[in-house]
Design a protein that fits this description.
- Its cofactor is heme.
- With about 140 residues, the protein is α+β, with helices and mostly antiparallel strands.
- It is about 20% helix and about 20% strand.
- It has a domain of about 45 residues.
- It contains three helices and ten strands.
- The strands form five sheets. The chain has a two-stranded antiparallel ribbon with strand order 1-4. Strands 2-3 form a two-stranded antiparallel ribbon. Strands 5-6 form a two-stranded antiparallel sheet.
- A hairpin with a 5-residue loop joins strand 2 and strand 3.
Length: about 140
């Protein structure tokens, strides 16, 4: 085992012999690790456009369609799902509503492509510079 905490991967230790959904056999005591960052970009899971930001993936006829928490594993899934997941989602929604209610946003430079900088946590390469102007009406 590692003498430090690894934040870029997560894993579990099998308590009993088991078979994973893909048919791989796991014996008691085997450790299985996964990379949530990589899983979020796998064409096998998300399709050929996995690297593209497409919020409409979760919409059908304009209505949100929830997916399995095992597909988007950032908050884990099953009995060990993050206790703070719903709180984090609620905070995100409230902040988004407040910001969109009082401000209009546009990119500072429309010609600049938004690109990721790959690190332990996701960052925008060079930042994502936007102009926020107060809504007057």
């Amino acid at each position: 085992m590692f003498p430090f905490i690894c934040t870029w991967k997560d894993g579990r230790c099998a308590q009993v012999d088991d078979v994973l959904p893909d048919g791989h056999k796991v014996k008691k005591g085997d450790e299985v690790y996964y990379l949530a960052y990589a899983m979020g970009r796998m064409p096998y899971i998300w399709g050929e456009d996995a690297e593209e930001f497409q919020p409409e993936r979760w919409l059908k006829d304009g209505v949100f369609q929830p997916q399995s928490s095992f597909q988007f594993i950032s908050f884990h899934a099953g009995p060990r799902i993050c206790l703070g997941k719903e709180f984090a989602y609620r905070q995100m929604k409230i902040l988004s509503i407040v910001l969109l209610r009082y401000f209009r946003f546009k990119l500072s430079n429309n010609a600049q492509d938004a690109a990721y900088r790959v690190t332990i946590t996701l960052h925008m390469k060079g930042g994502l510079h936007v102009c926020a102007t107060p809504r007057t009406t």
